[in-house]
Specification:
The chain is built from 5 helices and 7 strands. The protein is flat and about 50 Å long. The site of zinc ion (ZN) has 5 residues, from helix 4.
Length: about 180
Protein backbone atom coordinates (compact mmCIF):
# COMPACT_ATOMS: atom_id res chain seq x y z
CA UNK A 1 0.00 0.00 0.00
CA UNK A 2 1.29 3.44 -0.89
CA UNK A 3 2.19 5.41 2.19
CA UNK A 4 0.99 8.99 2.08
CA UNK A 5 2.96 11.78 3.65
CA UNK A 6 1.43 13.52 6.66
CA UNK A 7 1.20 17.31 6.43
CA UNK A 8 3.86 17.63 9.14
CA UNK A 9 6.23 15.24 7.36
CA UNK A 10 5.66 17.14 4.16
CA UNK A 11 6.68 20.45 5.71
CA UNK A 12 9.52 18.75 7.59
CA UNK A 13 11.07 17.61 4.32
CA UNK A 14 11.26 21.23 3.15
CA UNK A 15 13.22 22.28 6.22
CA UNK A 16 16.69 22.36 4.68
CA UNK A 17 15.44 24.05 1.53
CA UNK A 18 13.51 26.64 3.56
CA UNK A 19 16.63 27.53 5.51
CA UNK A 20 18.73 27.74 2.33
CA UNK A 21 16.12 29.94 0.66
CA UNK A 22 15.96 32.27 3.65
CA UNK A 23 19.75 32.57 3.63
CA UNK A 24 19.55 33.33 -0.10
CA UNK A 25 16.95 36.05 0.12
CA UNK A 26 18.80 37.86 2.91
CA UNK A 27 21.58 38.17 0.31
CA UNK A 28 19.21 39.75 -2.21
CA UNK A 29 18.96 43.26 -0.78
CA UNK A 30 15.50 44.81 -0.71
CA UNK A 31 16.04 48.01 1.24
CA UNK A 32 13.44 50.71 0.64
CA UNK A 33 14.55 53.60 -1.58
CA UNK A 34 13.58 55.96 1.27
CA UNK A 35 16.31 54.27 3.30
CA UNK A 36 18.81 54.54 0.46
CA UNK A 37 18.21 51.12 -1.12
CA UNK A 38 17.14 49.84 -4.52
CA UNK A 39 13.75 48.51 -3.49
CA UNK A 40 12.32 45.00 -3.71
CA UNK A 41 12.76 44.36 -7.46
CA UNK A 42 15.51 41.73 -7.38
CA UNK A 43 14.02 39.88 -4.44
CA UNK A 44 10.59 39.88 -6.07
CA UNK A 45 12.13 38.50 -9.28
CA UNK A 46 13.68 35.66 -7.32
CA UNK A 47 10.50 34.79 -5.41
CA UNK A 48 8.37 35.06 -8.54
CA UNK A 49 10.70 32.57 -10.24
CA UNK A 50 10.33 30.13 -7.36
CA UNK A 51 6.53 30.31 -7.40
CA UNK A 52 6.50 29.73 -11.16
CA UNK A 53 8.80 26.73 -10.76
CA UNK A 54 6.21 25.29 -8.39
CA UNK A 55 3.62 25.53 -11.14
CA UNK A 56 1.88 28.63 -9.74
CA UNK A 57 1.03 31.79 -11.61
CA UNK A 58 1.85 34.78 -9.42
CA UNK A 59 0.53 38.13 -10.54
CA UNK A 60 2.87 41.08 -10.25
CA UNK A 61 1.52 44.48 -9.24
CA UNK A 62 4.10 47.18 -9.72
CA UNK A 63 3.93 50.88 -8.93
CA UNK A 64 6.42 53.66 -9.52
CA UNK A 65 7.31 55.51 -6.32
CA UNK A 66 8.48 59.10 -5.71
CA UNK A 67 12.08 58.01 -6.28
CA UNK A 68 11.13 56.59 -9.70
CA UNK A 69 11.69 53.04 -8.44
CA UNK A 70 9.28 50.25 -9.37
CA UNK A 71 7.83 48.66 -6.24
CA UNK A 72 6.58 45.13 -7.00
CA UNK A 73 4.14 43.06 -4.99
CA UNK A 74 3.34 39.44 -5.85
CA UNK A 75 -0.10 37.93 -5.48
CA UNK A 76 -0.91 34.29 -5.99
CA UNK A 77 -4.15 32.45 -5.41
CA UNK A 78 -4.60 28.73 -5.12
CA UNK A 79 -7.94 26.95 -5.21
CA UNK A 80 -11.28 27.71 -6.79
CA UNK A 81 -13.43 28.47 -3.76
CA UNK A 82 -15.42 31.70 -3.42
CA UNK A 83 -13.88 32.53 -0.07
CA UNK A 84 -10.16 33.00 0.37
CA UNK A 85 -7.90 32.91 3.39
CA UNK A 86 -5.14 35.44 2.79
CA UNK A 87 -1.64 35.37 4.18
CA UNK A 88 0.54 38.42 3.76
CA UNK A 89 4.27 38.90 4.17
CA UNK A 90 6.43 41.80 3.08
CA UNK A 91 9.56 41.74 0.96
CA UNK A 92 11.18 45.07 1.86
CA UNK A 93 13.61 45.61 4.72
CA UNK A 94 15.01 48.58 6.57
CA UNK A 95 18.70 49.44 6.23
CA UNK A 96 21.44 47.84 8.29
CA UNK A 97 21.47 50.58 10.95
CA UNK A 98 24.73 50.98 12.82
CA UNK A 99 27.10 48.70 10.91
CA UNK A 100 29.54 48.30 13.82
CA UNK A 101 26.78 46.67 15.87
CA UNK A 102 26.68 43.72 13.45
CA UNK A 103 28.89 40.71 14.11
CA UNK A 104 28.19 39.41 10.61
CA UNK A 105 27.51 41.04 7.23
CA UNK A 106 23.85 42.14 7.47
CA UNK A 107 23.31 41.44 3.77
CA UNK A 108 24.84 38.02 3.67
CA UNK A 109 22.60 35.41 5.26
CA UNK A 110 24.36 33.09 7.68
CA UNK A 111 22.98 29.88 9.12
CA UNK A 112 24.53 29.09 12.47
CA UNK A 113 23.38 27.15 15.50
CA UNK A 114 19.94 26.57 14.01
CA UNK A 115 19.36 30.27 13.33
CA UNK A 116 19.58 32.50 10.28
CA UNK A 117 21.37 35.81 10.79
CA UNK A 118 21.09 38.85 8.50
CA UNK A 119 18.96 41.96 7.95
CA UNK A 120 15.35 40.98 7.40
CA UNK A 121 15.80 37.30 8.24
CA UNK A 122 13.07 37.69 10.85
CA UNK A 123 11.28 40.82 9.55
CA UNK A 124 9.92 39.59 7.26
CA UNK A 125 12.02 36.83 5.72
CA UNK A 126 10.65 34.08 7.93
CA UNK A 127 7.12 35.23 7.03
CA UNK A 128 7.88 35.02 3.32
CA UNK A 129 9.40 31.56 3.63
CA UNK A 130 6.79 30.09 5.99
CA UNK A 131 3.86 31.30 3.89
CA UNK A 132 5.39 30.27 0.56
CA UNK A 133 6.18 26.76 1.74
CA UNK A 134 2.76 26.42 3.38
CA UNK A 135 1.33 27.15 -0.06
CA UNK A 136 3.69 24.65 -1.65
CA UNK A 137 2.57 22.00 0.84
CA UNK A 138 -1.07 22.67 -0.08
CA UNK A 139 -0.29 22.36 -3.78
CA UNK A 140 1.56 19.08 -3.30
CA UNK A 141 -1.08 17.79 -0.89
CA UNK A 142 -3.71 18.36 -3.57
CA UNK A 143 -6.56 17.65 -1.13
CA UNK A 144 -10.02 19.22 -1.24
CA UNK A 145 -9.94 22.63 0.42
CA UNK A 146 -12.72 24.54 2.12
CA UNK A 147 -11.29 27.93 1.15
CA UNK A 148 -8.93 29.16 -1.48
CA UNK A 149 -5.51 30.22 -0.26
CA UNK A 150 -4.17 33.64 -1.15
CA UNK A 151 -0.61 34.76 -0.68
CA UNK A 152 0.42 38.39 -0.98
CA UNK A 153 4.13 39.22 -0.85
CA UNK A 154 3.94 42.97 -0.61
CA UNK A 155 6.38 45.85 -1.11
CA UNK A 156 6.87 48.95 1.00
CA UNK A 157 5.64 47.74 4.37
CA UNK A 158 8.39 49.37 6.41
CA UNK A 159 7.65 52.91 5.22
CA UNK A 160 3.86 53.04 5.23
CA UNK A 161 2.68 50.48 2.62
CA UNK A 162 1.71 53.25 0.16
CA UNK A 163 3.17 51.34 -2.81
CA UNK A 164 2.34 47.88 -1.48
CA UNK A 165 -0.66 46.74 0.53
CA UNK A 166 -2.59 50.00 0.15
CA UNK A 167 -2.42 49.74 -3.64
CA UNK A 168 -3.58 46.13 -3.54
CA UNK A 169 -6.57 47.14 -1.42
CA UNK A 170 -7.47 49.70 -4.09
CA UNK A 171 -7.14 46.99 -6.76
CA UNK A 172 -9.91 45.24 -4.81
CA UNK A 173 -7.88 42.08 -4.39
CA UNK A 174 -8.99 41.43 -0.83
CA UNK A 175 -12.68 41.68 -1.51
CA UNK A 176 -15.55 40.83 0.79
CA UNK A 177 -15.70 37.20 1.78
CA UNK A 178 -11.98 36.92 2.17
CA UNK A 179 -10.12 37.15 5.40
CA UNK A 180 -6.52 37.57 6.36
ZN1 LIG B 1 8.26 44.33 9.01
Amino acid sequence: MKKTLSAIDRVEKYKREMTDTLVNIVGIKAVSPESGGEGEGKRADFLEGMLKEWGLRPKRYEYLDDNNVKRPSLVVKYGDKNRTVWVMAHTDTVGEGERSMWKTDPFKGIFKGGKVYGRGSQDDGQGIIASMYALRALVEENSPMRYSFGLALVADEEIGSGYGCQKLVKENIFKKGTCS
